[in-house]
Design brief:
alpha+beta, 122 residues, globular
Length: 122
């Protein structure tokens, strides 16, 4: 009897545990992140950066100042302040209430495994 009660308790608690697979399977918000990026390139990057070759990843959960939030990885080529082309740089752009919230340089594992597509595609 005692073993049955213990097993039942363990199974009940396991059902409530926030397993990582369940968190990854959660669908993203109804957000056209590619359109938001395209419409706001001048807000994300200064005009004198001459941003080109913009590629955007799928919508994904990314860390932010307020915890995990929805965002995307954006990779661009630009021009430095002295007019020289820069190496491609990757940024994380987060969203709040169907609008851009933050842009920051990607770091660590922010964009590992991201699949990028040109901004004009898809």
């Amino acid at each position: 009897m005692r073993n049955t009660l213990s097993v039942t308790l363990v199974v009940a608690l396991a059902a409530c545990w926030p397993w990582p697979m369940a968190a990854q399977a959660a669908p993203g918000p109804a957000l056209d992140h590619r359109k938001l990026i395209a419409e706001n390139l001048t807000k994300l990057f200064s005009a004198d950066a001459h941003v080109r070759n913009v590629v955007v990843s799928e919508l994904r959960r990314v860390p932010s100042a307020v915890g995990l939030t929805w965002g995307t990885c954006v990779r661009v080529n630009a021009t430095s302040m002295i007019g020289k082309p820069t190496v491609p740089r990757t940024y994380v752009v987060t969203f709040s209430r169907n609008a851009l919230a933050e842009r920051r340089a990607a770091s660590g594992n922010d964009c590992v495994g991201a699949k990028f597509m040109p901004l004009g595609a898809g």
